[in-house]
């Protein structure tokens, strides 16, 4: 299992919302250039855990975090600026949420806030990102049109392009296809597989088939605990823990 | 069954009656104002100063081309005169090369004579109970450098219009930035809790205080304590305080309507909070903020009580921020003054019509802006 490098190392991570413990002693190594899937029933903490990886939980009030998360060996809660962290660890949200601006401006938003102003440089980044997100051909003629005017599946790929434009190392996807139709879902899945060559991808999903189709590793969460973590093939075919087996075979969830 | 039908009928009748009554009242009020005020609205009313102004001027005459003073034409001055209904001599026409355009007052400042000015004296001839011929002859045969006593007639609302615009601009310049920034603080930065609740409570209550109390405060603090006297600055500062709660709460509503996901995705891309506010939050709140500003303009245009106590009722174009030169009557305070001091209901109604038109125009602008921005964002 140690043939690739660890991108994230999580040590004894606890997370409290006020007095409620949402995550309990999570330990995990996430590998580079792989797709890691988090599965589990609603409220199991998988999305919460995902958000600790780029500190989006900082935005929620009354959150307390114990333990450590290392990105390439650097503690992300003490030794790195949160702005820097978020440009290295991008995020794609559950609902497609482009800004109410043109497609071009959406994708150029990240580079612009990080100080890139030259038009030709921005043009290049926008095209490259949209190509990477496999949506260039569909939108190249309407870059100046509002991003809200395209379909939900296209919006989500614009959002992915927007994330890619910042050139992150890791992309966090929080149920990126739950609001999309099956065809758009397949496109996003293909895209994720394509992107893992260059990026480390961590995806939260409710869709078991999706996890088994695209991920290399799968982690199963239940009530704030990580029950089992391993190769996707092993988790789905030969789970060690009884609870994992029950969930995967559909006995609860 | 029948009683139920009857109840329905009565209630329905009541509803129709109430609506009809409301509409009727509106129509009657508007009709009355229009009936009283429309006759008084003309170009002079819209373009002239309020008070008449008497000035002595000196004009260097040109050589006379023809001495025919018929029909009130005076060739050495390049003007045509006539008698008005009160038998006063006034200027109906000024030629483009006329020397009266070069006229100077007694301080030798330029004071060009305009169409409509009344001449009451030429050199030593007093123009009273005079025929056109006599007046024209007196003007034609006067000294080389002729001394004229000229009355520029008033009766117009220009000073009030200008003062209203000055006060709108000044008040917004003060209250809009403060209000918008305060709303951003309250909505984006302040932590939920007791203090925030107290601040919100205070703002809500400030909005409900009668404006005359703000006026009293403005008079005590700005006019007297800070010695601004009745002035546009004192008025604008007082109005700014009145406007703040509206601007803050309207802007806050606009900020609240912005989906949290916009902020999250911006922060998720590595933007700072300030960048997020300034690049995503504020642009999206802009239509709401503009509406807040237009509502504020409406409020300023309509405010009278607070301004009576802080800006005064002098019908002049203010030329300073504080002091005597800065006292200013807006349209509404003048309207009040007209009814209260001179009982001039038709004049007041004419001003009321101007105010109504202003408010309607503002409302149309605010609707257009909102529509335009919604269309631009692609979420009509």
TrEMBL record, chain A:
Recorded GO CC terms: plasma membrane
Localization: Cell inner membrane
Reported function: Part of the ABC transporter complex PstSACB involved in phosphate import. Responsible for energy coupling to the transport system.
Gene Ontology MF terms: ATP binding; ATP hydrolysis activity; phosphate transmembrane transporter activity
Superkingdom: Bacteria
Gene3D superfamilies in alphabetical order: P-loop containing nucleotide triphosphate hydrolases
Annotated organism of origin: Mobilisporobacter senegalensis
Swiss-Prot/TrEMBL keywords: ATP-binding, Cell membrane, Membrane, Nucleotide-binding, Phosphate transport, Translocase, Transport
Pfam families: ABC_tran
Membrane topology per record: Peripheral membrane protein
SMART domains in UniProt: AAA
Keyword Nucleotide-binding: yes
Entry annotated with the keyword ATP-binding: yes
Protein's name in the database: Phosphate ABC transporter ATP-binding protein (PhoT family)
SUPFAM superfamilies: P-loop containing nucleoside triphosphate hydrolases
GO BP: phosphate ion transmembrane transport
Residue intervals of the ABC transporter domain: 8-248
TrEMBL record, chain B:
Transmembrane segments: 14-35, 157-186, 198-222, 228-248, 281-301, 345-365
Cellular component terms per the entry's GO annotation: plasma membrane
CDD domains cross-referenced by the UniProt entry: TM_PBP2
Listed GO MF terms: phosphate transmembrane transporter activity
Residue stretches making up the ABC transmembrane type-1 domain: 161-366
Gene3D superfamilies: 2.30.42.10, MetI-like
Membrane topology category: Multi-pass membrane protein
Keywords: Cell membrane, Membrane, Transmembrane, Transmembrane helix, Transport
Annotated ranges, domain PDZ: 56-154
Protein family membership: Belongs to the binding-protein-dependent transport system permease family. CysTW subfamily.
Name of the protein this chain belongs to: Phosphate transport system permease protein PstA
């Amino acid at each position: 299992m140690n043939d690739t490098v660890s991108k994230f190392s999580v040590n004894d991570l606890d997370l409290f919302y006020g007095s409620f413990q949402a995550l309990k002693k999570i330990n995990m190594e996430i590998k580079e250039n792989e797709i890691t899937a988090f599965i589990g029933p609603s409220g199991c903490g998988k999305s919460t855990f995902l958000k600790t990886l780029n500190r989006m939980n900082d935005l929620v009030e009354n959150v307390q975090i114990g333990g450590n998360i290392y990105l390439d060996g650097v503690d992300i809660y003490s030794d790195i600026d949160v702005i820097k962290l978020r440009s290295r660890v991008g995020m794609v949200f559950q609902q497609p949420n482009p800004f109410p601006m043109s497609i071009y401006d959406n994708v150029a938003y990240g580079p612009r806030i990080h100080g890139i102003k030259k038009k030709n440089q921005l043009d290049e980044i926008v095209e490259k990102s949209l190509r990477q997100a496999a949506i260039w051909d569909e939108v190249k003629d309407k870059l100046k049109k509002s991003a809200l005017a395209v379909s939900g599946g296209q919006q989500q790929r614009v959002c992915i392009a927007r994330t890619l434009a910042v050139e992150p190392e890791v992309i966090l996807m929080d149920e990126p296809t739950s609001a999309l139709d099956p065809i758009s879902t397949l496109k996003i899945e293909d895209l994720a597989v394509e992107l893992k060559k260059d990026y480390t991808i961590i995806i939260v999903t409710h869709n078991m088939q999706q996890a088994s189709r695209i991920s290399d590793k799968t982690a199963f969460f239940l009530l704030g605990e990580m029950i089992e973590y391993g190769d996707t093939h092993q988790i789905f075919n030969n789970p060690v823990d009884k609870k994992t087996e029950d969930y995967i075979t559909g006995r609860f969830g | 069954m029948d009683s139920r039908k009857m109840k329905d009928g009565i209630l329905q009748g009541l509803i129709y009656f109430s609506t009809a009554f409301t509409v009727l009242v509106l129509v009657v009020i508007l009709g009355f104002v229009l009936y009283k005020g429309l006759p008084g609205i003309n170009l002079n009313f819209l373009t002239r100063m309020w008070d008449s102004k008497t000035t002595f001027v000196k004009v260097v005459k040109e050589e006379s081309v023809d001495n025919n003073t018929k029909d009130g034409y005076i060739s050495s001055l390049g003007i045509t005169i006539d008698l008005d209904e009160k038998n006063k001599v006034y200027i109906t026409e000024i030629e483009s090369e006329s020397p009266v355009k070069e006229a100077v007052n007694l301080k030798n400042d330029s004071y060009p004579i305009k169409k409509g000015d009344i001449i009451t004296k030429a050199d030593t001839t007093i123009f009273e109970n005079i025929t056109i011929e006599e007046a024209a002859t007196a003007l034609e045969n006067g000294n080389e450098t002729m001394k004229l006593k000229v009355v520029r007639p008033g009766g117009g609302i220009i000073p009030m219009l200008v003062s209203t615009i000055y006060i709108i601009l000044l008040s917004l310049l003060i209250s809009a930035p403060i209000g918008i920034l305060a709303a951003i603080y309250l909505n984006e930065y302040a932590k939920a809790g007791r203090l925030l609740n107290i601040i919100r409570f205070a703002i809500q209550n400030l909005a409900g205080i009668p404006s005359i109390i703000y006026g009293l405060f403005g008079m005590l603090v700005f006019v007297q304590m800070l010695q601004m006297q009745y002035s546009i600055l004192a008025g604008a500062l007082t109005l700014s305080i009145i406007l703040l709660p509206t601007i803050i709460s309207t802007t806050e509503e606009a900020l609240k309507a912005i989906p949290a996901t916009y902020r999250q995705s911006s922060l998720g891309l590595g933007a700072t909070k300030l960048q997020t506010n300034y690049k995503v939050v504020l642009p999206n709140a802009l239509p709401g903020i503009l509406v807040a500003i237009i509502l504020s303009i409406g409020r300023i245009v309509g405010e009278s009580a607070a301004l009576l106590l802080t800006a005064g009722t002098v019908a002049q174009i203010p030329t300073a921020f504080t002091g005597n030169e800065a006292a200013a009557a807006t349209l509404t305070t003048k309207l009040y003054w007209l009814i209260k001091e001179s009982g001039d209901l038709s004049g007041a109604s004419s001003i009321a019509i101007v105010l109504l038109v202003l408010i309607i125009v503002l409302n149309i602008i605010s609707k257009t802006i909102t529509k335009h921005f919604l269309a631009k964002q692609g979420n009509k």
